[in-house]
Amino acid sequence: MKPPPFAYAAAGTLDEAVALLDEAGEDAKLLAGGQSLLPLLAFRLARPSHLIDIGGVEGLDILEEQDGSLCVGALVRHATLERADLSGGWQALREAASLIGHLPIRVRGTFGGSLSHADPAGELGVVAAAFDAEIVLRSLRGVRTVPARDFFLAPLTTAADPDEVLVEARFPTPGTGFRSVFEEFSPRVGDFAYASVAAGCRLATDGLARDVRIALGSVGPTPVRARDAEQALSGSFLDDTAIVECARLAAETCHPDAGDWHADGTYRKALVSHLVERALRRLGAGP
Amino acid sequence: MSAPGGGLIGSPAPRRKNRELLTGEGTYVADIRLEGQVYARVVRSPSAHARLLGVDTSEALRVGGVVAVITADDIDDIRIPIRLPFAESPEANAVLQAPLAADVVRYVGEPVAVVVADDPYVAEDAAELVSIDLDELEPVLDPANSTESSQPLVHESFGSNTIGRLAYRYGDIDAAFARADVVVRRRLRVHRLAAAPMETRGLAADYDPGSGVLTVWGGAKVKHFTRALLSRVLGLELTDVRVIEVEVGGGFGTRGEPYPEDILIPLLARRLERPVQWIEDRWEHMVATNHAREQEHDFELAAGADGRMLGFRVRGWCDHGAYVRTQGLLPVVLPMVHLPGPYEWPAFSMDLDAVLTNRTPVGTYRGPGMTEATFVRERMVDILAAELEMEPADLRRRNLIPAESMPFSFMPGPGSGAVMPIMYQGGDFVTAFDQMLDGAGYDRMRVEQRQARADGQHAGVGIAAYIEFAAVGPFEEVEVIGGAGNVVVRAGVGSLGQGVETALAQIAAELLDVPLSGVTVEFHDTAEVPQGFGSFASRSTVLAGNAIAAAVDEMKAKAAPLLGCGPGDVEFRDGTATAPGDRSVGLGDIGPTRGRFEKEGLTASFGGAVCSVSVNPADGRARVDRFALAHDVGRAVNPRLLRGQLAGAAAQGIGGALFEEVAYDEHGQPLSVTFADYMMPTAAELPDVEVTIIEHGSGSNPLGIKGGGEAGMVGSLGAVANGVADAVGDGAEVLTSSVSSARLWHALHRPRRA
Amino acid sequence: MAGWLDPHDSVAVTLTVNGAPRKVRVPPRRTLADALRDAGFTSVRLGCEHGVCGSCTILLDGAAVRSCLMLAVQGQGHTIETVESLTDGDELSTLQQAFDDNDALQCGFCTPGFLMLIEGLLRSEPEAGRDRILEVVSSNLCRCTGAVPVFQAALNALAANRDDP
Ligand SMILES: Cc1cc2nc3c(=O)[nH]c(=O)nc-3n(C[C@H](O)[C@H](O)[C@H](O)COP(=O)(O)OP(=O)(O)OC[C@H]3O[C@@H](n4cnc5c(N)ncnc54)[C@H](O)[C@@H]3O)c2cc1C
Ligand code: FES
Ligand code: FES
């Protein structure tokens, strides 16, 4: 379980990273926190020709609100995100980060690496989907922005081209009163979740739920929004009937082929319904 | 006979090794660096079952830094033998494993070639370039179906996937069922598990052409057997082979048996005349090192309406994987001798098949056979209790073999095969059972359970009682060398991280009346220690401990003429041998003394576990909130170390029940090859295991000790499954030893059987 | 721009280990764990080489990380601590002593990794509560003890440090 050979370069700046990536060609890969790439190399499931280490690139670790969005830089570590001083609307982001693996993994693992790795069980992708995050990609060809729903294509596959660096993601700031939570089921503390849910809504003064967002992880090839469930809940009270119905509809969103030998699709579907209920009850219970 | 008094034996002396281990100084086999050392990488079968048409090593040989590549063509046609005579049979001997596959590969991970290079990274690169030409065959994957005629054969030349059927008849089983008021019958499955010590296996071997001596580091458990095997297959004098045990990161029954690599690496060292190191990686470990436990049993239990258990019939299939390895038929023999357990059955009838499948071979893992048998029997006892609406503890107590009936035996009756008779030398099971319940606070557990249920929770309490056969012979030998201020004990057992050296030092120190710090225990090197059978079946302290007692007696005999008295008058005081009238000689003047302890058969000891469990039906998660175990160790040499062993074993068992499973897909591809997939429990998933040590002595050896290193495991699968079953009540039937959240959720949402 | 390092070329990397600079020559693919072991820091143990068991845990700039999931070349310019740094002369540290007192080790293979994991927590979150300590202790695996005694040792060591900082 030793990594296969590859050429290596460390980039000092984003420009350098982009240039090196372009130069190295199709089979090159970026190395950020290494918490997904190194295990892949150890099992020789990845055989990049070149690795470009972006760990030392300046300026990729921003975490602040700019122009109506929360910008999360590619090099923000999970451990930083979980402790970040963010307003209540971003609670799901913090909770999601805190559930990734174990502390030593979170100390190294990065936000950009997590989205780029595109594991369907990755918590951060689920939050990105829930918040309609815009993902910013850069290459020698220029900068482009891809919405989360178009970014995740399949397990370990994104819309980013081989020469593109994920620079940051922008989470549009939700309206006041919006709150969000993250719930998941993992067999042991720190395991990849069998199912996860990012849920958020704004409870208007009339007590009705607005701007409902529900996204699911580990139940299909990519994170998925439970649109029917969101719609059903929008404009209604967060009461038992509505919660149960919303949870049922959310479970219907699960991909029919989801699941593996640890946890098959039927079981995951039941977990989704249970987790959505739990998430909505937390939202209903107030801050 | 030296009469051991109070003092060091029975004291919670601290572990000897700890300081070295806490500072990171301990040397494990991967830490060994020898001048000019090269690194081996084993090329393994990617297929579960295929004809091996050819192995092309040419490309690998071209890689810079590669020193050698060998295949089956380059070595003698040998098989790795069964280590224990009582676990052999002609059938088992027909399906032994060769170090490298020659014509057919029979499980994913089977060694096909070995690459040696000057760097482990390069060895791995080159190993990938060895090209294996395979003609795929249908794999056999289900033990219970493996014997059907429609199934392909794992070993074509053997002609069957059954390598033996053990039959054991006791009493009149038909009469027992005829007079039964109640019969319960279920098919129970024990899932495949792996011991998965934190350190993988590894070896370093060096051959010195000058002296002709081959030295192998990384031996463990059965060093002397490995040495004899190597001397035979490599054509070396026994005295020219040294097997050295370095620090070992856990053994649990799997590590230290001679595997294919234990022959291949020394062979390469000898052939290349260079030191060769091989360190198993985790993926390899999960396919190459023995698996354990997988079996299926059809169990029928007959009882009277009053709860008297009248008899059982069991038909079982015990998987051995693709080959029989060094432990022979133990995967079928051990469940058999443990199935009856501590109950006074008037009759039973057991038929167990040893079967083959195209998966990694099965060996022993801590509490082997007994853990599986205890799960099966104890689950059935609870199913009976539910049927009779009896309290599970009461039902058990009513059926335990009473102390008056000891010694007790279930002698095999007509219709039995050549089986080992099941005999219990002694013990008071009823008292011990109640000690266990008291220790666990069983009544309080039940009260808390009722309260939790009243609060709407799914709370359960599970019990398992068992018999453990341990401390197997045939003998151990030690050498005791007295000196000024220091006594050296050389023993043939292994350490494997259990702390046996501390226990042996305590015994020697007490018997010779020297301070604990004045005893050194050596067991690392076959060149220095006498013969030994090794560390398995919780035998090390029992056998080597009593051998020390024998050596001490021998020292008295040797000291007597020096002191001019009879051996009976010699006493050890303060590091000297003394005789009445103040005459004394130093221990160093007596000279090295050997002691040997021989033991026939196995020592049976009673034990059990009680746990409380909570289940969340929404996600299927079961949590073991409390786990209390009790075990009769005869006499605890070091209660502190013993508690650690018992609690650690229980933690493994709880993990095995809740999380761990070695799984395969429908093509025989292993699925549990990472630690993300083979899920061992962490501190967050485990309760603080509570231990009650029972000391009911044992007439069968002078020190009165029984085994203890494995016992914490034995009741675990059964107790957890019973606790879960109790928690879910009518909601689900628990018929597998795995109660993972997914399994449990499915059981809870499956339509119930009629 | 930084140049490419060829797959099979070795480069000199200076690792600062336990306060002293260590020069190692490594090809790019060599893991930090292997480089440390080759440099004699064999307390860095490899139990899985894929980030799950935690036997290889070290402190990198004061925080616990898995050294099997880093390349040696990534260690350049960072401060590394291994278990060899915990002992002050012959004295075991409070944490090491707590392991001994709570029987938190048997075979000892996982021990250095656990010690560094908890050492990191002691330093960065001295006020950590029971749940947090349990969560962090669950980062690593101990097959011999199940790690509940390790958790107990961590609780005791954190409490002792608070009483006597
Ligand atoms: C034991 C263990 C448990 C884990 N548990 C979880 C878990 O529960 N949930 C979870 O989500 N993750 C988990 N992870 C993975 C962890 O979250 C990783 O940190 C994350 O998936 C990848 O981030 P990284 O910075 O380590 O990326 P790397 O490993 O460095 O890279 C991952 C991939 O992303 C690419 N990449 C990295 N950065 C960029 C970028 N800026 N632009 C374009 N491509 C980029 C790389 O080329 C590579 O293909 C676990 C890992 C381990 C070892
Ligand atoms: S060896 Fe690094 S986490 Fe297991
Ligand atoms: S002490 Fe052996 S793995 Fe922890």
Strand-helix topology:
The complex is a heterotrimer of chains A (287), B (754) and C (165).
Chain A: E1 7-10, H1 14-24, E2 28-31, H2 37-42, E3 50-53, E4 63-66, E5 69-73, H3 78-82, H4 91-98, H5 103-108, H6 111-117, H7 123-130, E6 134-139, E7 142-147, H8 148-151, E8 152-154, E9 157-158, E10 165-172, E11 178-185, E12 195-203, E13 209-217, E14 224-225, H9 227-233, H10 240-252, H11 265-284
Parallel strand pairs in A: 1-3, 2-3
Antiparallel strand pairs in A: 4-5, 5-10, 6-7, 6-10, 8-9, 11-12, 12-13, 13-14
Chain B: H1 18-22, E1 38-44, E2 50-56, H2 58-61, E3 66-71, H3 90-93, E4 104-105, E5 111-117, H4 120-129, E6 131-136, E7 162-170, H5 173-178, E8 182-190, E9 202-208, E10 213-217, H6 223-233, E11 241-244, H7 260-272, E12 276-279, H8 282-288, E13 295-303, E14 309-319, H9 330-338, E15 347-355, H10 370-388, H11 392-399, E16 408-410, E17 422-424, H12 429-440, H13 442-454, E18 458-470, E19 475-483, E20 486-491, H14 500-512, E21 519-522, H15 540-563, E22 571-573, E23 576-579, E24 583-586, H16 587-590, E25 593-598, E26 603-616, E27 621-632, H17 639-658, E28 690-694, H18 711-714, H19 716-728, H20 741-748
Parallel strand pairs in B: 1-12, 10-11, 14-15, 20-21, 27-28
Antiparallel strand pairs in B: 1-5, 2-4, 2-6, 3-5, 7-15, 8-13, 9-10, 9-12, 13-14, 16-17, 18-26, 19-20, 19-25, 22-23, 23-24, 26-27
Helix pairs in contact in B: 9-10, 10-19, 14-15, 17-19
Chain C: E1 11-17, E2 20-26, H1 32-38, E3 57-60, E4 63-66, E5 79-81, H2 94-101, H3 111-124, H4 130-137, H5 148-163
Parallel strand pairs in C: 1-5
Antiparallel strand pairs in C: 1-2, 3-4, 3-5
Bound molecules: flavin-adenine dinucleotide and FE2/S2 (inorganic) cluster (FES) (2 copies).
